[in-house]
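Example record

One chain of 149 residues, shown exactly as stored in the release files.
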Amino acid sequence: MVRLPENWIVRRILGGAARQRRDNGRISSAALADEISDSPGASRFFRHPMAPLALILLAMLLSTTALADSGAEIYKKKCAACHGQSGAGDTMIGKNQKIRSLRSSEVQKLSDDQLFNIIGKGGDKMPAYDRKLSKDQIRDLVRYIRALK
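Predicted structure tokens for this chain:
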């Protein structure tokens, strides 16, 4: 499944058809190909001299930002081993490292920028994620941490 970005390229090529067939923002690559070939603007689009460049740009968009995980998925992959599924720090690593609960008022009172910096640059025992996650992914993670309270 490919996550479609909400941008003008996709809307221009696919028209409203892709938005109607999406399921939680996801569409299979086969359905995407069908949408492109069946969309009303496709015949005009593919005759345009810039069509190959636009398709390359669309492919690049879909391969990078479009496939970004949500905050919950990133949390499960990168954070849950130490912080636990609920954010309470109740894992073996969390207990050994005496990790504070992400649900605590102490953590929740931190600003979004402070949480962003802690995730990006790391902390006492926490590794830095600024080279492993994009800024958008870290922002999604901050929003997810806010939802844990």
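Notes: The first strand starts at residue 2 and ends at 3.
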